[in-house]
Amino acid sequence: MKVFTKSVLASLIFVATSQMAVAENILVVMSDKDQLKLKGTDVYQTGFYLNELMQPVKLLLDAGHELTFVTPKGLAPTMDKVSDNVMFFGGNVDALKEHKALLESLKLVDRVESPVISLSRVEQIGYDRFDAIYVPGGHAPMNDLLKDQQMGTLLTHFHNNQKVTALVCHGPIALLSTLPNASQFTDSLVAGKATKKPQDWIYSGYKMTVFSNAEEEASKGWLGGGEMEFYPQTALELAGGEYSQSSDIWYPNVVIDRELITGQNPASAVNVAKAIINKFDKS
């Protein structure tokens, strides 16, 4: 008969527990739009920001989590070409190459082989099968995620069950989809009409952040001289969110309130991912 010391037994228990652990399944929800309607007739070619998607994706995969990639209609998302820039990776050329290589290996933007599924498919699988949501930015979510009814249903389920809900840069605009009148609310913003604070928003009073009005003004040149129809900071404040921003533009800023994790800008993406991982480490 084998006799184990306490230290050996402890090691065996640790290994057994590790092997039994089940990785969290995290929904990575992106827009499948590749354009942003600007004021007038202008259109901006957009999509997700490379670092906002891939830095968290790499960190979450490295931490052992399972990722399910989603767009509203199950179409492959598009990368905003502006984000293919070393400045979003701290000037590290190798980091840019590494994350682009990971994106290519996952085939997310492949029009034929992309593994993304639709929000309808997520509902069919069952929301209870998923443990967290992550929504990266880029301007694309300003097209569809902010008023998609299925997105609203998904976020409401996660809110009601206090499941980790993380969004960065322009991604937090998707929180508006949980409004009962999301389309009318956003139409009022586009029209520049006075918008009353909704009385029944599930995130009303939550502390949050999003790409700031000051950052929008500073980055107008990236839109080719065009102007956005409205800014996400203004929209979330009007809806009832308690907005906060970094001491200066472009600095990382992550706000955590209950299940909700929001990041202000591209520089906040890594810290948002770390906050997701930390939530699970504490559970």
Let me know the largest β-sheet. Answer: 7 strands, mixed
Identify the CATH architecture.
Answer: 3-Layer(aba) Sandwich
User: Percent of residues in helical segments?
Assistant: 25-40%
* CATH fold node name: Rossmann fold
Shape assignment: globular
Low-pLDDT sequence parts: 1-21
Instruction: Determine the mean pLDDT.
Output: 91
Helical segment tally? 9
Strand line-up of the largest beta sheet: 5-4-1-6-7-11-10
User: How many structural domains in the coordinates?
Assistant: 1
Q: What class do helices, strands and sheet pairing give?
A: alpha/beta
- Which homologous superfamily in CATH is the superfamily? Class I glutamine amidotransferase (GATase) domain
Query: What is the beta-strand fraction?
Result: 5-15%
For the record, the CATH class is Alpha Beta
Question: If you compute it from the alpha carbons, what radius of gyration comes out, rounded to the nearest whole angstrom?
Answer: 20 Å
**Number of DSSP-assigned strands:** 11
Give the N-terminus to C-terminus distance in angstroms: 38 Å
Give a summary of the structure in a few sentences.
This protein is 35% helix and 14% strand. It is an alpha/beta fold.
